[in-house]
Amino acid sequence: MEDVLTEVPPPSRFFQEDLNNFTPPSPPIPSPFLVFPTAADLDLPLRPSLLIIAISSPSLHLFHTAASKILIGTLILPETSFAGNSVQPSLKDKSCNLYSLDGDRQTLLVSVQCPIAADRCHAVAELLVSQHIVPERVLILDSVQNRNFRGKLSRDEALAFKLETTSERKSKSKSLKLEYLPSASVVDGLGAALLAKCEINKIKAVLCVTWPEFGAAALELIKFRVLPALDLGLSFKSDADDYGSLGQDKDPFDSDLYS
What we know:
This is Putative proteasome assembly chaperone 1. This protein is of the alpha/beta class.
């Protein structure tokens, strides 16, 4: 006769969550934090007139070639390994650096070059637009993905859309001459978390999403349609023109066949 106490139970006897009760919980991941190498020269919280947060590949490449930018801080995600990063800022690094685009630190740039998990987006957003940085206005540069867009997206056509907070819509600031993101389309990840945090804190903010996710066409939209509306007077090195070689999506399964 089989021993019902020691016999291996069938898979249907216990739920997975019941089995997990006997496993010690994983230690909590420390919260993200900002490091300022020149903290003695900074008055925290920083209060820039404009905070630009570059998330999309074209925007990261464009601002990497900005002629005048000074590294003033770094956002540390404890779960992200910095192994393999170069000493000087590089597009290949997994990093999230904070730059000043002018001498008086009134225009700041956050270059998000590392993946941020969905459950960490709100903590990062809280850090960037509430705690150590309290901006007057925020520009978020992200990309729209096929699976989140209601409609057909052609790889031969570069597009840019926007979402904005209530404070931005009511303000007298120069608005971006872009169409709103079509109804029923979705933006997720860090860009959405940042826009939500700005809405809660009543900060003027615009989320600009471009298509395609990679390539020179989206970069040119940002360079010639988005940034000129802000009158920043930024100049970029000629290296930005080399981005055309990155025109293909990294995901071979994300094609027009699945649109």
